[in-house]
Amino acid sequence: MHVIVKTNQQENAVPTQAAPEGDDDPFDPGSGRPQSPAQSASKRSGRIVRFPTHRAGILNPAVRSFRKKHFPGITTKLWNDWQWQTSHRIRSLNQLEKMIVLSDVERAAFKQSGTTLPLGITPYYMSLVSPDNPDQPIRRTVIPTIHETVHTTGEADDPLGEDAMSPVPGLVHRYPDRVLLLLSDFCSTYCRYCTRSRVVGHGAIHPSRNRLERAFAYIEQTPSVRDVLISGGDPLMLGEEKLSWVLSRLRQIPHVEIVRIGTKVPAVLPQRITARLVRMLRQYHPLWMSLHFTHPDECTPEASRACAMLADAGIPLGSQTVLLKGVNDNLETMRELVHKLLKMRVRPYYLYQCDPITGSAHFRTPVETGLSIIRGLRGFTSGYALPTYVIDAPGGGGKIPLMPDYVVGREDDALILRNYENKHYRYPEPCNR
Ligand code: SF4
């Protein structure tokens, strides 16, 4: 019973090369995006106007000036190419030092051997990182600090007990009707609070046909599994061909009703969401996606465009957000994030209490912080904007929802309830209950 599959895979290799993407135009009329009146008119007259990807430009001024400063010779077309972004990730202290002024605690992280998660940041995401403020939320999530080497009581490398619930390498079966399939351990950008930092980025999980066929065989032989969540690592870092093969294999299993993909790509590498990718994905409905947004600063025009393409392909989008100290642990930030997500057609789905992974104390907040954020959102904003706050129980107990206490008590046959304004109300229960 284990998850880790040792291979010789190099951490910095893209798991599977995708086919050339010459026609991957986010504004391709075939992408299903709404078109401008000029485009519609051209189409009516039989002439289709195409805007090549690089003409779409770089939408965010901060991103544009970063590229100009650190990648001056790079064309917009290359910048918008996800494979260029992947192969030019910032992966060393030397590269980092040229882009940001490191604080002492950041620099010290590189002098210790205890930091387990590698460094990896796409140039796009790096452009959102403050060059001079080590407390900037986005910077805290991707730049290592010496705090990662501090191990406190109750922390563990595998706090959710996934390794013990893996009947087949890379397949976690925790709940009765669903499984988690880890495709690879590769991400374009590594989050310092990653729950799977014990395996992610270490070349431990490889999307080999052999291993995956064993996982498919297990699912085939387990009729109770109706929902498969594909995660990793980031599944969207695989090329279309490989991903399409995985999805088609799952679709051949009659009792698999839905497939979900967990990904942070729209936030850290929105260039990966291409017309080619969404055309492939839409063949495998019902397909859902759990995105991973952490802070409102990630909701850029680029991310918004990526989400629009996925939503236009009919993929319901939800966001899983980890509650992180100094990143999003206050009501204002969380309110801004959930509002921006809804505008990007992404439903805030879960707010996770940060898992007690080894070296995570500097990211973890008291549970009361999360409850007070939920209290500040419920009733004060749309219900759709409200994520479910959960703790993934250490040891593999599954997600446990945490709610502020809205049931005050009982009086005779009435339930006493507290509303969002802290006013009390009586609800008469049915007499014959
Ligand atoms: S994208 Fe997900 S799997 Fe990858 S490092 Fe971040 S949290 Fe971990």
From TrEMBL:
Domain of life (superkingdom): Bacteria
Q: Quote the PANTHER family the UniProt record gives.
A: L-LYSINE 2,3-AMINOMUTASE, LYSINE 2,3-AMINOMUTASE-RELATED
Residue positions binding [4Fe-4S] cluster:
C187, C191, C194
Matching entries from Pfam families are given as:
LAM_C, Radical_SAM
Q: What is this protein called?
A: L-lysine 2,3-aminomutase
Asked whether the UniProt record includes Isomerase among its keywords, one would answer yes
Write out the biased-composition intervals (Polar residues). 1-15, 33-43
Task: Write out the entry's keywords from A to Z.
Answer: 4Fe-4S, Iron, Iron-sulfur, Isomerase, Metal-binding, Pyridoxal phosphate, S-adenosyl-L-methionine
Modification sites for N6-(pyridoxal phosphate)lysine: K399
Q: Which reaction does it catalyse?
A: L-lysine = (3S)-3,6-diaminohexanoate
Record the organism.
Answer: Desulfosarcina ovata subsp. ovata
Disordered: region residues: 1-47
Similarity section = Belongs to the radical SAM superfamily. KamA family.
Q: Which InterPro entries match?
A: Aldolase_TIM (IPR013785), LAM_C_dom (IPR025895), Lys_aminomutase/Glu_NH3_mut (IPR003739), Lysine_aminomutase (IPR022459), rSAM (IPR007197), rSAM_sf (IPR058240)
Q: Which CDD domains match?
A: Radical_SAM
Keyword Chloroplast recorded: no
Write down the EC number. Answer: 5.4.3.2
List the cofactors: pyridoxal 5'-phosphate; [4Fe-4S] cluster
Q: List, for all copies, the residue spans of the domain called Radical SAM core.
A: 173-387
